[in-house]
Amino acid sequence: MSPANMCKGHILDEHCQKSVVKYDVVAFVGDGENDFCPTVRLRESDMVFPRRGFPLDKHIAEGRDKVAAMVKPWDTGLDIINAFMEVLMTVKS
């Protein structure tokens, strides 16, 4: 169980800084209000997948100017897979 005051943005930053892997792209999937903090820390090369109609989707719509990452709303896991495939096909071209 995670602590009530857990900051996902801080955890994401810490993981990316301490990891031996340097990520070209970070993909973040979320739906809740507490998922907005890590979303605004993402770069233009990253992707955020807000669940359509849930709090994160609404926060991004209201604060789109704060989000640099590509925004790909989803309803099902297939939406996420298809978005990844679309980006991969663009990179291969």
Short description:
This protein has 93 residues and is of the alpha/beta class. The protein has 4 helices and 3 strands.
Give a structural overview.
By secondary structure, the chain is of the alpha/beta class. The chain has one domain (24-92). It is 43% helix and 11% strand. It contains four helices and three strands. It has helices at residues 8-18, 36-40, 55-62, 77-92, and strands spanning 27-30, 47-50, 70-71. It has a three-stranded parallel β-sheet with strand order 1-2-3. The protein is globular, with a radius of gyration of 14 Å. The protein starts with 7 loop residues before the first helix and ends with a helix. The model has no long low-confidence stretch (mean pLDDT 91).
Describe the structure using short key phrases.
93 residues, 11% strand, alpha/beta, three-stranded parallel beta sheet, single chain
Q: What's the total helix number?
A: 4
Describe the strand arrangement of the main beta sheet, using strand numbers: 1-2-3
Tell me the β content: 5-15%
Radius of gyration, in angstroms, nearest whole number? 14 Å
Number of domains: 1
Main structural class: alpha/beta
Output mean pLDDT.
91
N-to-C SSE string, H for helix and E for strand: HEHEHEH
Low-confidence stretches: none
Ordered list of secondary-structure elements with their pairings:
Blueprint: H1 8-18, E1 27-30, H2 36-40, E2 47-50, H3 55-62, E3 70-71, H4 77-92
